[in-house]
Amino acid sequence: MMIPKLHYISQGNSPKEHLQNIQKACTSGAELVQLRLKGLSEKKTLKMATEAREITAHYQTRLIINDFYKIAKAIKADGVHLGTTDPCPTLARKELYTWQMIGGTAHTLEDCETLITKNVDYISLGPFRFTETKDNLPTVLGLDGYAAIIDALHTETPILGAGGITTTDVKAILETGISGIAASGAITQNFDVIKVFHQLLNASATAEQRHTFQ
Length: 214
What we know:
Shape: globular
CATH class: Alpha Beta
Low-confidence stretches: 208-214
Helix content: 40-55%
Oligomer: single chain
Strand content: 15-25%
Radius of gyration: 16 Å
Number of strands: 8
Mean pLDDT: 93
Distance between the termini: 26 Å
Number of domains: 1
């Protein structure tokens, strides 16, 4: 399963604004969006997820639902993303379709190791730097934190950097061995940066391929 290198995590001051921003991300070429609505009931989230599915399907963009794996299954989303306090990925795996992907959030090396034993499809590791999209922020990892964790892991599981990342960070982050980026604020402020992110992330991929085939 190929995991896109750029994940847009939805933002907005209202559920409707989340959907509008998902639409903008899709029109700007996003390959994967994560619907991340906090504090909504399951019923309301299901309604929003159904609408998000219609938008993303139109653009052939993959959709991942944050937290609610039963909703991800109900609307046949491409997968679910589970935070550190959400249900266990092993439990979600039993419920979901075999083709649906499961991502997990990690803040430490231990978190990563645990998620790998639970066979997640990708890990979102952060925060890279201080960000206001989350309360009670865990320790900021930065480039040194990323490099140390990647070196210790030796895993094939894709690890995405997350937390306040902008386009100027991408090159240095990829050099630590991180394979992709999850971004929210940087994209919501200007959807045109999706193209810039793609160029930066794919430039590294082509360089790697050239290196392998010599």
